[in-house]
């Protein structure tokens, strides 16, 4: 397996497919790099170098007790980029991975990065506060914590339904896809999973977004039941200087079928621009 070792001794697993301009993928919670396989294969088949890593605590990376927060996630991404000596890279983040990408840009700058894609991403802030009335109440995230703690296997099986919109009339989401979601989710360490819930829901990315000085594609389904578009993409595009918004009508959080095809087309167009 391909891994890097971070300064604190964690091993971060990554895939490295193809050659050309690097496109670095950051996955959502509670998944791993495999969630990006379709897009990694797509871009590698179109002359790019696709790199996708498992966030610490997830998949094949180290299940560290500490460091399961956005600053460390961003620092791990920075170490991956630096150790592979990537330049002119495009960062692509889904959900929590979009937070990781945003914090990386705010914390490490854009010297090595030329573009970014935020898909169904958690910024600016998921949690409802006085300053963020569009966010979700803390009870929502406490419920996620309770579900993971009580019976994480069943919780992940149930979560796959709203994640892919399988609970919507007319949805065609295969059982195989839901099983794959469960399998990836079960690879997350319990401590890592619980810490990451706090990281993706309570981290405020407002200042990170304001600092971004590269083109950003902000893509989001307008029927996202996991990261509602109103508190996320619609606010993000107001904060990023050079952002383009793409919305997918009736699309869920995890894009499938025609929704995924639409995003893939937009991704290739953005990479080629």
TrEMBL record:
Top-level taxonomic group: Bacteria
Residues annotated as domain AB hydrolase-1: 22-253
GO molecular function: hydrolase activity
Pfam families: Abhydrolase_1
Classification via Gene3D superfamilies: alpha/beta hydrolase
SUPFAM superfamilies associated with the record: alpha/beta-Hydrolases
Signal peptide stretch: none
Keyword flag Hydrolase: yes
Swiss-Prot/TrEMBL keywords: Hydrolase
PANTHER family: HYDROLASE, ALPHA/BETA FOLD FAMILY PROTEIN (PTHR43433), NON-HEME CHLOROPEROXIDASE (PTHR43433:SF3)
Protein name: Alpha/beta hydrolase
Organism name: Streptomyces poriferorum
